[in-house]
Amino acid sequence: MKVTINSKNPPDLELFTDDETKDIVQNIFCILKTTRGSCPMLRDYGMDPSILHKPMPVAQAAFSVAIQKQMEEFEDRATLVRLEFDLDPQHPDILYPIMEVEIP
Predict the structure, then answer these.
(1) Three-state SS string across 24-80, please?
(2) Distance between CA 17 and CA 15 in Å, rounded?
(3) I need a labelling partner for 42 at 20 to 30 A (CA). Which of 30, 34, 59, 89 fits?
(4) SS3 for 22?
(5) Domain assignments of the chain as residue spans, ordered by start
């Protein structure tokens, strides 16, 4: 099943959900919103903040690689199928990833 994750529209977080798809989407969203190094005992979890200070094309490429590696390590139940970025004209320096993932 393919699921779209839009960073502008966070899912309603639910602890201890019985829905595996919802659990996977929540986990990926948490990876997107966590700064790497901020989780005690799990310092490699999350996105590298140095991506924020790169030119937009470089940041998009770095983000693509980073989210792929994070998913392989911390949420291997889903596979990244497609990644694009929604660029807000009012905030042209902010990346809003829209991901399509395959969940078996």
Answers:
(1) HHHHHHHHHHCECCCCCCCCCCCECHHHHHCCHHHHHHHHHHHHHHHHHHHCCCCEE
(2) 6
(3) 59
(4) helix
(5) 2-102
Structure tokens at 89: 């004209």
Secondary structure class of 89 (helix, strand, coil):
coil
Query: What is the distance between the alpha carbons of residues 98 and 100, in angstroms, rounded to a whole number?
Result: 7
Instruction: Tell me the sheet residues that pair with 21.
Output: none
What CATH code would you report for 2-102?
3.10.450
Pick from 93, 92, 102, 75: which is nearest to 83 by CA?
Answer: 102
Which tokens is 73 given?
């390590």
Q: Please report, in tens digits, the pLDDT of each residue of the chain (104 residues total).
A: 999 999 888 888 888 889 999 999 999 999 999 999 999 999 999 999 999 889 999 999 999 999 999 999 999 999 999 999 998 888 888 889 999 999 98
**What pTM, to 2 d.p., does this model score?**
0.89
